[in-house]
Design a protein that fits this description.
CATH architecture: Up-down Bundle
Mean pLDDT: 76
CATH superfamily: MFS general substrate transporter like domains
Helix content: over 70%
Number of strands: 0
Strand content: under 5%
Number of domains: 1
Oligomer: single chain
Shape: globular
Number of helices: 18
Distance between the termini: 44 Å
Largest sheet: none
Low-confidence stretches: 1-29, 399-408, 486-504
Length: 505
């Protein structure tokens, strides 16, 4: 639309000039002075930014719909010799290396857009490997996923933050407010991917028999007491169902031994197509974005900075709670789905249970984000600890429990505490949380669930005590100390990047 004031000619801009300005904006998002001076170009640029934000969110939605759906089923679909959980352990072990060395180098070489495209293509290999799950297929694909995970999330973080700064300049809003808005939209899409991915798995795995969507009419107590819940010691569920089967309450009818190969092919085919569509959305839909300043440090600089950062006593005190975050998320993916869902109900129910988790996760993330500014961090972490303690005790005493976890705000905590050194702080966050994943998946096939619950309960008690020490140190700081370590617009680069759930790799 033309301007309503001035003569008619002023509302019709020179076509060549518009094309020149638009071309510059498309390629590098530069030329802000010209865009701010022209209302039509300003409106077009705002629409372009929103287009790219929605496209990135959609690409991640597709990618993690597939990856989270496939990874949540690994302990149930590929239990032979611990293959499924071993593949997950390799992902997070490789992610530690990736987080320390790759993001800066890869983004500098490829740019944000193509880093995300290639990384998503690496994720596509995971559902593909599940067509023929074997040590020679799943493990290499896990390495690809782990190596691409850190560059993918770092590129997303940089892209959204750079776009937010540009959007703030166009709308005269604060950068911090726009960053929070964009990340809030992103995580709304991201949490939705868990729901969609698990819906797909549930209905596809239940397609062999409509009766598999019904709850069992009886529960074979002997079978469950020996093999399910806290008593699951990673035995062969198929053999156990045969051993404890009875005419009064048959357990051989449970879909615990796994669906047919054709059903798995259909499921993984859907996941592959959905994940690949995410790469195509990024490749052909999203615009390139020019980063104002590129990192010039060597590949080992972040590694050195990460270890130097551990001289900060607050970082040392946060190690336990960060590792615990990896423990509990890995327990949900590996042990809970197998021991408390697949064993008593069947693998087709894993998706429905995780849908409840994803819904609670999304709601609590939004709810606690608003509550935190009124009550502070300490009450929320205390409440979380009480929930976890109650949950672990319940799982130790009873077979079933409502496993509703809320979004941990560790990422935001790292962003606040280490605002002056965020890159090293977030590298520590990724390393220690990934270590929790690796340890949990590594020992999953060798010890009983009851022992794992006691281990997590012990770590939680130590972790919350050390967290309280961090808050005590923070409260003793002088106003000058807080000003030196305070957050500015330039420190919001990856503020929301740590606020992810189990499969935000």
């Amino acid at each position: 639309m033309g301007s309503s004031d001035g003569n008619v000619d002023s509302s019709h801009h020179n076509l060549t000039d518009i094309q020149r300005k638009t071309s510059i904006s498309n390629e590098s998002w530069e030329n802000m002075d010209a865009i701010l001076a022209d209302p039509s170009l300003k409106t077009k640029e705002i629409r372009r930014i929103w287009k790219n934000i929605i496209l990135i969110c959609s690409a991640f939605l597709c990618n993690f719909t597939a990856f989270q759906g496939a990874s949540a089923l690994q302990s149930s679909l590929n239990p032979q010799e611990g293959l499924g959980t071993a593949s997950l352990s390799v992902i997070y072990g490789t992610l530690i290396f990736s987080a320390l060395f790759l993001p800066t180098y890869v983004i500098n070489c490829l740019g944000c857009k193509w880093t995300m495209v290639i990384s998503i293509c690496c994720y596509v290999t995971y559902p593909l490997a599940n067509f023929y799950p074997h040590w020679g297929t799943l493990i290499p694909s896990s390495i690809f996923v782990g190596l691409s995970g850190a560059p993918l999330w770092s590129a997303k973080c940089t892209y959204l933050t750079t776009a937010a700064k540009r959007y703030a300049a166009l709308t005269e809003d604060t950068t911090d407010a726009v960053v929070n808005r964009f990340f809030g939209i992103f995580f709304l899409f991201f949490q939705t991917s868990q729901i969609i991915g698990n819906l797909i798995s549930s209905f596809v795995l239940s397609s062999d028999s409509t009766s598999s969507l019904e709850f069992p009419t009886c529960y074979n107590e002997t079978y469950m007491q020996e093999n399910c819940g806290r008593n699951d010691c990673q035995g062969n569920l198929s053999a156990a169902r045969i051993q404890f089967n009875s005419s009064e309450c048959p357990v051989t009818e449970l879909n615990s031994s796994g669906p047919s190969k054709s059903t798995i092919y259909i499921l993984m085919g859907i996941y592959t197509a959905v994940s690949m569509s995410g790469a195509l959305i990024m490749a052909f839909g999203a615009d390139k974005i020019k980063i104002r300043s590129q990192e010039t440090r060597g590949p080992f600089s972040l590694l050195i900075a990460t270890f130097k950062h551990m001289r900060d006593k607050r970082q040392l005190l946060l190690i336990a709670i960060t590792v615990f975050s990896g423990f509990e998320q890995a327990f949900l993916t590996g042990d809970f789905t197998r021991s408390f869902v697949t064993c008593p109900l069947g693998v087709n129910w894993v998706g429905f249970v995780l849908i409840c988790f994803a819904g609670c996760d999304a709601i609590c993330s939004l709810l606690f984000g608003r509550i935190e500014k009124y009550v502070g961090r300490i009450p929320l972490f205390t409440a979380a600890t009480a929930i976890f303690l109650s949950l672990f005790i319940t799982l130790l005493v009873r077979l079933f429990s409502i496993y509703a976890l809320y979004q941990q705000y560790l990422g935001a905590l790292y962003g606040v505490l280490f605002a002056a050194n965020q890159e090293a702080g977030f590298a520590n966050y990724k390393v220690w949380e990934s270590l929790g994943f690796v340890i949990t998946f590594a020992y999953q096939n060798f010890i009983c669930v009851s022992i794992k619950l006691w281990v997590m309960l012990s770590i939680l008690v130590v972790a919350i005590a050390m967290y309280y020490c961090v808050e005590f140190i923070e409260r003793r700081k002088t106003p000058l100390d807080k000003k030196v370590n305070g957050i500015t617009d330039s420190d919001t680069e990856c503020k929301g990047e740590g606020d992810t759930s189990i499969t935000a790799i």
